[in-house]
């Protein structure tokens, strides 16, 4: 990977800033060193729809360039926190991939995973209730922020509108359902800090089972 070290340019962006936007030319491949990136497209209601959240170790731009042969970005990458990254010129990265079957296969495998994720998300938005989708979104955020029961709390860099954009609804709906979740013993939260998540209960709700509350009722 000497070529990457030789040609890479590192930088940083603040929360809310774009790493790139839909329609931008793919001039560089981005490696995320620190922070979180929201992968967004425009929803049918004219609001951003967050497709997924990626963090340290993510590579952005490789799939659509190497596999799909696009020359322009088909989604936007927006910093969900302060982000540090390294950028490698597109032609340099393509040259490395053509010489490495292992790296090319990794990109193909990631493409398959991304496609499955996109299909699952589309199906969930169409078939699941807002409550179910919100439960699933909270579980995803817990995974991204490495929530553990023993730590009892974690803070997120996402406002209610961001969470709404994850599941294609409004921030008012998110706020209302979060309050309902608190009453049901599924969560405890203030602003952007979650003090407790009932993982078992949220999983049951996300999977369309009868929710299990903190008191053990079913």
Written description of the protein model:
By secondary structure, the chain is an alpha+beta fold. The protein has eight helices and eleven strands. The chain has helices spanning 2-7, 62-66, 90-98, 101-127, 130-144, 160-167, 171-183, 199-206, and strands spanning 9-13, 18-20, 28-34, 37-42, 48-54, 59-60, 76-79, 83-89, 154-155, 187-190, 193-197. The relative contact order is 0.13. The model is unreliable at 210-218 (pLDDT under 50).
CATH superfamily of the largest domain: Jelly Rolls
- What CATH architecture of the largest domain do you see? Sandwich
| Residues in helix, % | 40-55%
Question: How is the main sheet built?
Answer: 4 strands, antiparallel
* pLDDT averaged over residues: 84
- Quickly count the domains: 2
Please provide the count of β strands: 11
The top-level CATH class of the largest domain is Mainly Beta
Beta strand %: 15-25%
Helix/strand class:
alpha+beta
What integer value in Å does the Rg equal?
19 Å
Distance between the termini: 54 Å
Q: Which overall shape is indicated by the principal axes computed on the Cα atoms?
A: elongated
Strand order of the largest sheet: 1-8-3-6
Count every helix, treating DSSP H or I runs of 4 or more residues as helices: 8
What is the name of the CATH topology of the largest domain? Jelly Rolls
Point out poorly predicted stretches.
210-218
Element order: H for helix, E for strand: HEEEEEEHEEHHHEHHEEH
């Amino acid at each position: 990977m000497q070529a990457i070290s030789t040609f890479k340019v590192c930088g940083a962006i603040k929360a809310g800033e774009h790493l790139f936007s839909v329609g931008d030319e793919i001039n560089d491949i981005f490696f995320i060193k620190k922070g979180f990136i929201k992968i967004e497209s425009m929803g049918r209601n004219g609001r951003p729809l967050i497709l997924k959240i990626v963090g340290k170790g993510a590579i952005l731009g490789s799939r659509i360039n190497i596999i799909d042969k696009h020359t322009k970005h088909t989604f936007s990458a927006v910093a969900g926190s302060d982000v540090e990254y390294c950028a490698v010129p597109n032609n340099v990265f393509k040259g490395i991939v053509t010489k490495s079957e292992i790296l090319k296969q990794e990109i193909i495998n990631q493409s398959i995973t991304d496609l499955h994720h996109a299909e699952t998300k589309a199906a969930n938005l169409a078939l699941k209730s807002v409550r179910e989708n919100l439960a699933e979104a909270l579980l995803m955020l817990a995974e991204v922020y490495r929530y553990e029961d023993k730590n009892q709390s974690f803070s997120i860099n996402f406002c209610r509108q961001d969470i709404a954009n994850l599941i294609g609804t409004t921030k008012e709906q998110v706020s209302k359902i979060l309050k309902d979740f608190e009453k049901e013993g599924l969560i405890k939260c203030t602003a952007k800090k979650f003090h407790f998540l009932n993982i078992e209960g949220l999983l049951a709700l996300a999977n369309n089972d009868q929710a299990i509350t903190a008191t053990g009722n079913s």
